[in-house]
Design brief:
Blueprint: E1 9-15, E2 23-28, E3 36-45, H1 48-55, E4 66-67, E5 72-79, E6 93-96, E7 99-101, H2 107-110, E8 121-122, E9 134-138, E10 143-144, H3 151-154, H4 160-171, E11 178-182, H5 187-198, E12 202-207, H6 210-219, E13 223-226, H7 233-239, E14 249-252, H8 263-266, E15 272-275, H9 288-294, E16 297-300, H10 306-317, E17 325-329, H11 333-341, E18 348-352
Parallel strand pairs: 11-12, 11-14, 12-13, 14-15, 15-16, 17-18
Antiparallel strand pairs: 1-2, 1-4, 3-5, 3-9, 3-18, 5-6, 6-10, 7-8
Helix pairs in contact: 4-5, 4-10
Bound molecules: nicotinamide-8-iodo-adenine-dinucleotide (8ID) and zinc ion (ZN).
Enzyme class: oxidoreductase
GO molecular function: alcohol dehydrogenase (NAD+) activity; zinc ion binding
EC number: 1.1.1.1
């Protein structure tokens, strides 16, 4: 299948070892395998997961050298011989997500629990991701971006949006109920506040600083609690709910262990704590006595399957989600990591590839 002319070399951000440094350099453009597509990435969001990967925060090692990134939005420019038009077309706008590929045959894939696949490929972690101009992804796993959607603004939906939308669904919170979003001013949190609103939920934002407070409030949080200045988070979160009994669900998207050890104390009886954030070496903790007497549920949630991805993108295409983002060039990724490490990013940073208009 012929498509646009593809260069043999491209710009990428690469690390050779855990801890970096990042090297902005030219590397070869890979060729798609039989069931893969080559995507000319135009924009890529930067997720805190990418920084965890550089820092070697998690027990699973990354591939090395590694091109990070898993919120890549671009155009399909080549495909393998087994990819037909009904799977993915040349010229189509697609997203390269965290789940780059799954086997589609294991017991979990068969039940549409693709994130639980026993042999997954993870973009920007076990395979090269979207911090390069041309990325490879499984044709059956790329997200199909609806027509007319801006590729810069939509890129953070490809991980942050899908993940929080899935987490909110898993929480079982119903329209009219209240969820607490812990990390509400960050990349995932700022989208969680909006998906919650679009799903008919009230939300309480928890994060720190005036900028994040203003952002969470503007995006729809009905209350904001500053974790750095509150003298009693548990009391303040409960007090922010109408009847003082606490939120029906808590969505944990912070990158700090402490809130993972507090949420069970303020979630409402029969409520659900959804664990999404992945701070290094952290443990979830809950008091047994109170948890039993309140019959609470603690559940983890991990990205989303292809259906969740389509639904999360559809919310965006309908104008229900506005991504708060700033754009910088691919070469400026180190600056983004610095700000992220310092907790100074309200919303998301999006990288612009050298050939994006
Ligand atoms: O599938 C998954 N489970 C999944 C998918 C995508 C991302 C998990 N993640 C993980 C990332 O690896 C990361 O650990 O979710 C976490 C959040 O990612 P992010 O939204 O990209 O990070 P961010 O933009 O840095 O936002 C984190 C926010 O948490 C706040 C910070 O101020 C920041 O705004 N925060 C912190 I640090 N401590 C807090 C606390 N004690 C807190 N907010 C409330 N209370
Ligand atoms: Zn991510």
């Amino acid at each position: 299948m012929s498509g646009p002319k593809i260069p043999t070399e491209q710009w990428a951000q690469v690390i050779d070892k855990v801890g970096g440094p990042l090297q902005y350099k030219k590397i070869p453009v890979a060729k798609p395998g039989p069931e893969e597509v080559l995507v000319n990435i135009k924009y890529s969001g930067v997720c805190h997961t990418d920084l965890h990967a550089v820092n070697g925060d998690w027990p699973i090692p990354t591939k090395l050298p590694l091109v990070g990134g898993h919120e890549g939005a671009g155009i399909v420019v080549a495909r393998g011989e087994l990819v037909t038009d009904d799977i993915c077309k040349i010229g189509e706008a697609v997203g390269v997500k965290w789940l780059n590929d799954s086997c589609l045959s294991c017991t979990f894939c068969q039940q549409a629990d693709e994130p639980l696949c026993l042999t997954p490929k993870l973009s920007g972690y076990t395979v090269d991701g979207s911090f390069q101009q041309y990325a490879i992804a499984s044709a059956r796993h790329v997200a199909h971006i609806p027509e007319g959607v801006p590729l810069d603004e939509v890129s953070p939906v490809l991980c942050a949006g899908i993940t929080v939308y899935k987490g909110l669904k898993e929480s079982g919170a119903k329209p009219g109920q209240t969820v607490a979003i812990v990390g509400a001013g960050g990349g995932l949190g700022s989208l969680a506040v909006q998906y919650a609103k679009a799903m008919g939920l009230h939300s309480i934002g928890i994060d720190s600083g005036e900028e994040k407070k203003a952002l969470a409030t503007k995006l729809g949080a009905s209350a904001f609690i500053d974790f750095a200045t509150s003298s009693d988070i548990v009391k303040d979160v409960k007090a922010a709910t109408k009847d003082g009994l606490g939120p029906h669900a808590v969505i944990l998207v912070a990158v700090n262990e402490k809130p993972f050890q507090q949420a069970a104390e303020y979630v409402r009886p029969r409520g659900t704590v959804i664990v999404i954030g992945l701070p290094a070496k952290a443990y979830i903790r809950a008091p047994v006595f109170e948890s039993v007497l309140k019959m609470i549920r603690i559940q983890a949630s991990y990205v989303g399957n292809r259906q969740d991805s389509e639904e999360a993108l559809d919310f965006f295409a309908r104008g229900l989600i506005k991504v708060p983002f700033k754009t910088v060039d691919l070469k400026d990724l180190p600056k983004v990591y610095e700000l992220m490490h310092a907790g100074q990013i309200a919303g998301r940073y999006v990288l612009k590839m050298p050939d994006a208009e």
